[in-house]
Amino acid sequence: CHVDLRPGLREIITEGIVGLETSAGTLRIQLLPDCAPHSVDYFIELLRLHNCAGCRFYRAEGRGHLWDAKGDHVKNAAFGPPYALLQGTLEVDGVAFKEMPKEGCSTVRRGSVAWIGSGPEFLISLADHAEWRDAYTVFGSVVPEDMAIAEEMSMLPASTDVWSGVTVRLLKD
């Protein structure tokens, strides 16, 4: 089944870290206000709602044989698919999403949390993606201890679909 972020986003004890509660466990994310202040402000607005109805993960692709367990790309391997990522939306039902501006941090590494375009679609990277260069705004990073939860989510039951000629793995409802 897909992973809802319900009961939603919640603050964790340490300042600057938020939790995405999923059926697989809570992913703690260190926000990066110096890199992406507008994106972090949006996250804080979500915290004030105490619920993120509509927020969910819907795509999950493991590392396959293209990246090692540390997230390093395997020499001479393709860069995907699979693309070693979790993808979801942070659009709250009934709340208009304000597009996020492109902000400072853009290097996607293992654990990076980044907007796809101007949002509300986002990704969590399971590998280093230097090949993506400046395509994304990174606004957070999953704490290293919680990457096992993200890896587990990438293995949840899924079906495949084709988006713009690329095979993707979609979480089952």
Automatic annotation (TrEMBL):
It comes from the Eukaryota. Residues 18-164 form the PPIase cyclophilin-type domain. Transmembrane segments: none annotated. GO terms for molecular function: peptidyl-prolyl cis-trans isomerase activity. PANTHER family: EXPRESSED PROTEIN. This is PPIase cyclophilin-type domain-containing protein.
